[in-house]
C-alpha cells in the first residue's frame, strides 16, 4: 500500500523591493539621443550627404557618419556600410533626380513594369478628378487588373 502525500503548500513569493527615490536624484540620469535608431533616408537627404562629401574630400566615411548623426537640426542616422553602398549607387541616384525632380522626397525608386498600364491609370485618375470623384487605393488596384 502507498502512503498518502501531504498536500502542497502555497508558494510564498519574496516581497518586491521598492526603489527609494529622493528628491536629490534625477529621474533619468542618461540623456536619450533624439533619434537613436536608424532610418530610411530620402533621396534629398542622400543628395545633401553627397554635397557634403564633395565639399570635404579628405573626410573619412566614419567621420561623415558622425557628422550627420550629431547635427543639431535634423540628425541623419545611418551606418558606414550604408554610406559605402550608397556611394556606389550615387550615379543611379543622381540620374533619378535628373529624370524626375519629384523623386527627391521618395525613399526608394518607383519601378514601373508596364508603362502602358501606368499611362492608362494616369488618364483614368485625371478623368475621375475632372468629375470630382474620389479615387481610392482599392479602386486603383481593381482598375490596374
From TrEMBL:
Keywords: DNA-binding. It comes from Suillus luteus UH-Slu-Lm8-n1. It holds the Pfam family HTH_Tnp_Tc5. This is HTH CENPB-type domain-containing protein. GO terms for molecular function: DNA binding. Residues 105-145 form the HTH CENPB-type domain.
